[in-house]
Amino acid sequence: MLKQKRPLIAVLMDENTSSGGTRYEAHKGYFHGLVAEGGTPFGVPYAPELVTDIVANFDGLLAVGGRFAYPSEWYLDGMTSQSPPSLRLAVERAAMAAFLAGRKPVLGICAGMQMLACLHGSRLTPDIGAWSSSALSHDRRGTLHRVDIQDGTLLRQIIGEPTIEVNTFHREAIAVVGEEITVSATAEDGIIEAVELASHQFALGIQWHQELFAGERHPGNRIFAAFVEACRIAT
What we know:
The protein is about 25% helix and about 25% strand. By secondary structure, the protein is an alpha/beta fold.
């Protein structure tokens, strides 16, 4: 019997934006979650000259969470990000666009989801609480809330359940949905928690931090399994 190849997955690293941006960093759960499902993940740096080689040699892209400012035109009129700028922006933008153009799987988590959405016409609010007085307090590490998963979406197919409990640790959120974007999950207050591109085999973004559930019995870990399998098929 032929041994199945472990797909190579590029993990775009985050950085310590709150303390000078001197280090790359990413939660170990991103890597352990992919390895547990048969993937071979490698962290990639902010080097624009490497993007072409990364897209050519890796089977899929995972864009991790982080806090950094997007272009002003990606926010609602008159609003700007409270987060610092980052060299990550240009590299992630180029890499994600190239992986999508090459029909290779993309998974965006937190900031990675917002990048996927904004590359396809969506716009953000930089402060959920100021934008919606009825919103839950989403920027609270360690707390959980329910998300409702829409019928007929890739996410519903993967999870197999109409609702799950997820963590919440984000200040920004999608406020306007681009025409190419499908909303696949929302929180109880209506805040968008997952999006996808229906035109792509696997282009999925989730707002919560699934990596924090790696190694646990959590239904959201099926996302890692489905992503690795999509990357395997793409090899």
